[in-house]
Structure to design on (286 residues):
């Protein structure tokens, strides 16, 4: 049961830093950084973003696979303790706080301590990746569902994420487009199991891997699910960069459309469209 909020305690803001580029944080998030007394930030937060809060005490509490990192229960305690000393506490999380960011654990700990908390959303990496490639995650007549997936598993509420074993079965969602976060180590296994068990995806399904999305270090690897299953991306990966694996027919590269091809079945489009006039003799689909 949650305790009553104590007025003299500070307030915690869980702020989404966005996918990487400093200028992709929301306006609300940047305004809060300017006011912050202390900022607990993830490892992947762009150092340039921290320049928005020169007045604040900055504490690194990030988690990186294979590196020494802060245990989640310790982060929770530090947030609670900070409210006894500071008024505006920022927990700056990469991407969106509510997407694989352990926000729920921090929110629960804060509420149990009677501390007011607010969440400020951010752009998650999948959406930034789609924007970078200029490829929609959905496509009319091809893809009407998208799943954001991680193969990382938690060891209870206070444990740290770890990846499933290479041979452990991975629960694959039934969606047309799949976006895997933190899937670098399991990329080959993901591909093999999708080919073997998923009727929506096969050897020829397009695959795009994006590293360091929206930053100056962004890289792309584009191929097929069959090639990924053969381990052909293994040597390409940079272990120091966060990777996003995007799979689905909607992501197939499309030939550029020439202006002369835009006529379609409607030979004339005029300004009357903006007045919601009905098009006649034209095919329409939702």
């Amino acid at each position: 049961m949650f305790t009553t909020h104590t007025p003299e305690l500070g307030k915690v803001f869980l702020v989404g830093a966005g996918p990487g580029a400093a200028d992709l944080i929301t306006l609300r998030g940047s305004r809060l950084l300017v006011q912050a007394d202390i900022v607990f930030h993830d490892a992947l937060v762009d150092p340039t973003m921290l320049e928005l809060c020169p007045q604040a005490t900055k504490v690194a509490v990030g988690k990186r696979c294979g590196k020494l990192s802060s245990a989640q229960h310790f982060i929770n305690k530090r947030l609670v303790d900070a409210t006894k000393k500071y008024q505006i506490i920022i927990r700056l999380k990469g991407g969106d706080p509510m997407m694989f960011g352990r926000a729920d654990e921090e929110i629960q700990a804060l509420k149990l301590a009677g501390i007011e908390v607010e969440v400020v959303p951010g752009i998650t990496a999948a959406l930034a990746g789609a924007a970078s490639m200029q490829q929609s995650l959905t496509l009319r007549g091809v893809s009407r569902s998208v799943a954001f997936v991680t193969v990382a598993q938690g060891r209870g509420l206070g444990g740290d994420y770890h990846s499933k074993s290479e041979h452990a079965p991975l629960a694959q969602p039934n969606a047309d487009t799949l976006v895997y976060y933190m899937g670098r180590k399991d990329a080959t296994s993901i591909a093999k199991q999708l080919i073997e068990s998923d009727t929506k995806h096969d050897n020829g399904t397009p695959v795009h891997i994006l590293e360091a999305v929206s930053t100056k270090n962004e890289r792309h690897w584009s191929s097929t699910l069959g090639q990924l299953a053969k381990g052909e991306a293994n040597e390409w990966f940079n272990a120091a960069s966060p990777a996003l694996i995007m799979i689905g027919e909607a992501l197939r590269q499309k030939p550029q459309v020439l202006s002369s091809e835009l006529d379609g079945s409607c030979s004339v489009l005029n300004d009357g469209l903006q007045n919601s006039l009905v098009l006649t003799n034209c095919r329409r689909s939702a």
User: Anything to note?
Assistant: The first strand starts at residue 11 and ends at 16.
